[in-house]
Amino acid sequence: MSGDRLEPMPEDWERALAVVAHPDDLEYGGCGAVAKWTDEGKSVAYLLVTRGEAGIDTMPPEEAGPLRTEEQIASAAVVGVHDVEFLDHPDGVIEYGLPLRRDIAAAIRRYRPELVIMSNHRETWPGGYLNMADHRVVGEAVLDAVRDAANRWIFRDLGLEPWQGVRWVAGASSPRSTHAVDITTTMDRAIASLKEHKAYLAALGGELGEPETFLRTAAEETGKRFGGRLATDFELFPM
């Protein structure tokens, strides 16, 4: 799959909801595409399952959680996203199950998206590096919650009308990517968005701690399968 040409992402939609485990997940994946979409007048909202409180080794969760919340809100604003919600599931030990599916289904019913975006839920990242449990669990829950949200007889206690209008789920940075978005005009904003995670990046260090190098290299690599343009990739699931 890695050598296959990527197809353009669908553009005939107006509302999207991005559901990921942690602050920074979208910034390491699809935020260049989000910036392009909001520039075009599309509505995108973010739903974070945790506040990333267990993500900084040198900072206790009680301090890291509020700080990473602020960084995520600032980061989202850079790419034109102003609706940012947090579910407050525990970082690092997210459990797949009905409570998680219920929370995500509720958000889908409220936001009524046509496109749902998530992070890579596969066992590995492109290149073979192992993915972490939180990403895998949230991705599986997103796929199931889309169907839950469409069934009026599931989670009836929410008091929300079912939403059957999700047409696609898109997983960012998957090793099985099928589609891409040209982010030539939004590359700089994607980098600026990741840079808003100042405390996280400072603690991270290494290649991942260098937004300019990491994101531009990834966009160039994806572009080899997308006509040579700077691009970000998705695994697209029609619903």
UniProtKB/TrEMBL annotation:
One of its GO terms (biological process) is glycoside metabolic process. The keyword Iron does not apply. It holds the Pfam family PIG-L. One of its GO terms (molecular function) is hydrolase activity, acting on carbon-nitrogen (but not peptide) bonds, in linear amides. InterPro entries: GlcNAc_PI_deacetylase-related, LmbE-like_dom_sf. Keywords: Zinc. The keyword Zinc applies. This is GlcNAc-PI de-N-acetylase. It comes from Amycolatopsis albispora.
